[in-house]
Amino acid sequence: SFRTLAGEQAGGALFNQIKEFATTTPMLMQDLAKGAQTLLAFNIPVEQVMTTLRQIGDISMGNSQKFNSLVLSFAQMSSAGKLMGQDLMQMINAGFNPLSEISAKTGKSIGVLKDEMSKGAISVDMVKEAFASATSEGGKFYGMLESQSKTIKGSLSNLQGAWDDMLNSIGEQTQGVLISGISAVQSAV
Questions:
Q1: 82: phi > 0 → left, psi -120 to 50 → alpha, else beta; which?
Q2: Quick check: 66 and 58 in contact, CB under 8 A?
Q3: How far is CA 10 from the centre of its chain?
Q4: What sign for the dihedral angle of Cα 112, 116, 122, 126?
Q5: Per-residue pLDDT tens for 102-142?
Q6: Model pTM score
Q7: What is the CA radius of gyration of the chain?
Q8: pLDDT in tens, 60-76
Q9: How far is C-alpha 136 from the chain's CA centre?
Q10: CA–CA separation, 85 vs 19, rounded Å?
Q11: Is the dihedral of CA 68, 28, 21, 149 positive or negative?
Q12: Bridge-partner residues for 103, per DSSP?
């Protein structure tokens, strides 16, 4: 699916980056792959996908449900070109209020920012900057996945990521044989 959504070379490279990220953080491969597919389906440029996944991973603190919710709301917001109330509520319910970050940067109150949002004045770029600010050095969520990967739960998740990577490699190596076998059974049926 990555090669179809992002092109042969870029899709393969993205998939490899996702596999590596899954084995070094508490994030699971299936969540990262689903998140990347969602972002690509909403026309997020392939060059921005891993950065976005890393930021959302840190903000979600490795929680799969929060991660998936943030990916979807981020993708919807990006598609609309501005932050809307529904996307803001979805982000807040997942544990992140981008207006708080924007407020800290601009000095405007949350109330003023909500009013601006209702007029369509909170752009995607402003929200992207809020994600970047929250996950960069000094931000509230800076290094969250890295620190969580050092816990028992994180270590077990890293093991799960390595296991999934191994199974995926085995599947890729035997794909031709399996497809031939399935085709033979299908013909027999």
A1: beta
A2: no
A3: 17
A4: negative
A5: 999 999 999 999 999 999 999 999 999 999 999 999 888 88
A6: 0.75
A7: 19
A8: 998 999 999 999 999 99
A9: 16
A10: 34
A11: positive
A12: none
